[in-house]
Amino acid sequence: MTTSTRGAAKVPAVLVLEDGRIFRGRAYGAVGETFGEAVFSTGMTGYQETLTDPSYHRQVVVMTAPHVGNTGVNDEDAESRRIWVSGYVVRDPARVPSSWRSRRTLDEELAAQGVVGISGVDTRALTRHLRERGAMRVGIFSGNALPDEGTMLAEVRQAPEMKGADLSAEVATKEAYVVPAQGEKKFTVAAVDLGIKGMTPYRMAERGIEVHVLPATATVDDVYAVDPDGVFFSNGPGDPATADHAVSVMRGVLERGTPLFGICFGNQILGRALGFGTYKLKYGHRGINQPVQERTTGKVEVTAHNHGFAVDAPLDKVSDTPFGRAEVSHVCLNDNVVEGLQLLDKPAFSVQYHPEAAAGPHDAAYLFDRFVSLMEGQRA
């Protein structure tokens, strides 16, 4: 299914959306066919972090930045063990990487990992289409013997939808592992891996935290077997409405009153644990330039996002939950989507965005310090 960089650039490719819209271009990365949910990312940098973020499992990512691949691919910036996107769509791929850290081209890396992509596409028109119609199923087909348009469309419409998808166990670690604290160890944290990015335990390790990363299937007993000072629930792919096991584990943590921090999927899990619903956004938030306001201070942060679902919680009042009072702590200034929750009677909070973002921005890094403060307060 893979091909060389030179060969792929000359191979025709077609992108077919489930509503029948078709875009034509050239193969980029592996040659073949792939299916997923079409989404767009507004980040102008950090494409290697995007590609290796497990939250993008079963998604075909459209890059809104027109020029992609100019820094190549290195061996240091991957957020997980592999590329997770189902497909990749770019307008103008770089012909030659220009970074001293580059080890190979992006095209070569996509091909080596079997990721089917397409280049030469009008990504501006495609992004506007997705903004108007919403995220939808898509297929990318490449090769010299392409199926007819009707056949391609039928295959796209047979692909599974993201709504109702239970994907965390597919991307999470199968075995627990430990990320040691840097310098003096101050705390132990049990991190439930729902699709964790490598930078997340690193940010905690920087603060003297020994992080025990546990599989998505971990039980409450598994969490407390590491004698944690705090518990963390990570980002991850799929529909939070399917994550009944993670919700049950989180409720067990809340019952014990252990300091708790959740990111992205972890925010949605906290919402469900508190009794709120979740819903699918029209086209989601993805990229590294999303404005979020912390409601207690009024401060606006520029943040990194990757989510297609959100928590349905009231913005205008404090809510009573089985674990005490809760409120929305952060909100997206673009569309008023809930971007954070906090309990007022227990040491627990979460955000919908990615404060660990390796590619930046780093406005929200203080949230890891807030987690440390909760554990310090509990210990005192």
Question: What do you see in this structure?
Answer:
The protein has 380 residues and is α/β, with parallel strands linked by helices. 23% of the residues lie in helices and 32% in strands. It has helices spanning 5-8, 47-51, 106-112, 123-133, 149-158, 168-171, 199-205, 220-224, 244-256, 265-273, 366-379, and strands spanning 12-17, 22-29, 33-41, 59-63, 67-68, 87-89, 92-93, 116-119, 136-142, 177-179, 187-192, 209-214, 230-233, 260-263, 277-294, 300-312, 319-321, 324-332, 338-343, 348-351. The strands form 3 sheets. Strands 10, 11, 12, 13, 14, 15, 16, 17, 18, 19 and 20 form an 11-stranded mixed sheet that branches. α9 (244-256) crosses α10. Residues 1-6 have low confidence and may be disordered.
Average pLDDT confidence is 95
Q: Quote the beta fraction.
A: 25-35%
Assign an overall shape. Answer: globular
Structural class: alpha/beta
Characterize the biggest β-sheet: 11 strands, mixed
Unreliable spans:
1-6
Task: Kindly summarize this structure in a few lines.
The chain has 380 residues and is α/β, with parallel strands linked by helices.
List keywords for this structure.
23% helix, 380 residues, seven-stranded mixed barrel, single chain, eleven-stranded mixed β-sheet, disordered N terminus, globular, 11 helices, alpha/beta
What's the layout of helices and strands?
Blueprint lengths: L4 H4 L3 E6 L4 E8 L3 E9 L5 H5 L7 E5 L3 E2 L18 E3 L2 E2 L12 H7 L3 E4 L3 H11 L2 E7 L6 H10 L9 H4 L5 E3 L7 E6 L6 H7 L3 E6 L5 H5 L5 E4 L10 H13 L3 E4 L1 H9 L3 E18 L5 E13 L6 E3 L2 E9 L5 E6 L4 E4 L14 H14 L1
Parallel strand pairs: 3-4, 4-6, 5-7, 6-8, 11-12, 11-13, 13-14, 14-20
Antiparallel strand pairs: 1-2, 1-9, 2-8, 3-9, 10-12, 15-16, 15-18, 17-18, 18-19, 19-20
